[in-house]
Amino acid sequence: MKILSRLISLASRSFSIAQLVDGEEMPVLLPFYHLVSDQEHPFQYNYRVLSASRFREDLDFLLEHFEPISLEELHSGMNLKNSFHLSFDDGLRECFEIIAPILKEKGVPATFFVNPAFVDNHDLFHRYKAAVLNQFFAKKGVISDLQNTYADLMSLDQMAEDVGLNWQEYLEKENPYMTLEQLFQLERDGFSIGAHSWDHPEFWLLDEERQLDEIRESMEWLVANFSPKIKAFAFPFTDFGVSRFVFDAIRRERLCDLTFGTAGVKLEKESRHYQRLSMEAEGYKSARSLLKAEYLSYQLKRLVDQHVAKRE
Ligand SMILES: [Zn+2]
Question: What's the pTM?
Fold first, then answer.
């Protein structure tokens, strides 16, 4: 954790959550996760993997202080003060096996953002390939920190081949992703399904037309397979580097009803675009400590007028 984050985290202990979420101009709380697992998981190289008991504690904390709302309610323009909407990115099978049952038990609505290229385990996201390779090397006592972009995919695939890792076999054996059938079941259970780009490239490395193709193709897939009441899209990684031109095209072509970034607790100038908060940040022992630090940071930014997300 960086020194400033640590100071803010320490300072936030003196406040109650109610004090920190109070005030004008408070953005709606949109926590997001990728997976929950009690197993040693290779994707821990990409983000902190929370245990099922920690996830339950997070939910209990959120339910104690905020009101859970559905994607439709988020879109409706109702008073969003003290409400939250949960979402989960990348469509991993733990969403179906571990997360959804806990959400059902606690009565919490959620949206699952998926990449069509990976549904049914047809392919593996390049950062997950890097994570699997990191784990492979770690088991051999070699510390590696591969952090490739989609542009280095060929060299990554070559590296896997060189060490005898076959992605097709890996996908068949591990089934990291949910199947289309499982996504249909989630929709029948009342959850929302949204798109997360076709195959999760770094948008800041794409030109605007290619960004729009990623959005159009994944949204078309969504509408062809599901009956989304609200057409939602979460930018892969972040919305950093996404221009006004792209937001205008999304609106003009009516591609999405709602879009999401990952800048934390922040206000947004773009209409129908919201920032979400990663709950997998390192260094926080509970959702309470993470949220208190995040809201204190927001309140401080508000004092110096830095509380609205910036992109360009
Ligand atoms: Zn993602």
Answer: 0.95
